[in-house]
Amino acid sequence: MYADEKVVFVKEITKGIELTKKRLLTFGKKEFLNERLSDATTHFLKRQGKLMRPGLVFFGALYSGFGIEEVVDLAVSIELLHTSSLIHDDLVDKDLQRRGINTTHIEFGEELAILAGDVLISKSIQNSAKYGREVIEYMSDTAMKMSAGETLDFECQKSKTVPSLNDYFRISELKSASLIKTSAAIFPFYKKSGTVKELETFGLNFGLAFQIKDDFNDYVNEKKDSDSDKFRPNVVSSLINEGNNKESALEKAKKLNKEYLERAITALKNNSDEFLKYLKMAEI
Predict the structure, then answer these.
(1) Which among 128, 149, 236, 245 is placed 20 to 30 Å from 21, CA to CA?
(2) pTM (2 decimals)?
(3) How many Cβ atoms are within 10 Å of 90's Cβ, its own excluded?
(4) Cβ 110 vs Cβ 91: under 8 Å
(5) What is the pLDDT of residues 124-171, one digit of tens each?
């Protein structure tokens, strides 16, 4: 673990996230060359979420015994890649809002949304170039998995098919958990640390737990942005489709969330109360 004083661990992650926020807010026309494209590209960067993935980049670095000084550019690159996927996913899924504002394609049109997602991928690669070819390949492999997962997601919606539980986990692993896995392991991967495998196992299981929580909340809150939402992969819908009633499906989703979170925690050799508190973000 990074420090004997457990509270330092979370404080350093918080510090890293704040540095990432500030860096993301500096992007504009200078980077993206065209004012309209810049507006579309920074639409979500200005309305930031919790920055969980950058937080996990710092988490993996600190867990492996490194400081945060070298990590910021990599955390920014991860968030740029994540944001590009949100823009493209919203367009494919025909979603209307995200983070309480219009999605990029609604606000700026489909053409600029595509271009904004593309330029964010390019900026992510450019920003991570200093870490070397292996890191870029690691991130690129993750981006391809995310695209494959979104394709499977879209095929379910297009065919109006609720995926089986096995298919649901395949989609979730590719589309969502793959980037969370990479976020946790990428800096130790760059440093060739011995913690890479345990952080990859942690990240994959943590990512699945987080996705189950997200699905659970969406189902309970009956989030419906488009007509295809009822066929969008959701763990509760898949459980109901396999013969469970609503109440049973919700309880089983809670149990699955707990199981994957426990797998994530078990994967790591060093745990602390402060560390476990940080992981509550994935708990239903």
Answers:
(1) 149
(2) 0.92
(3) 23
(4) yes
(5) 999 999 999 999 999 999 999 999 999 999 999 899 999 999 999 999
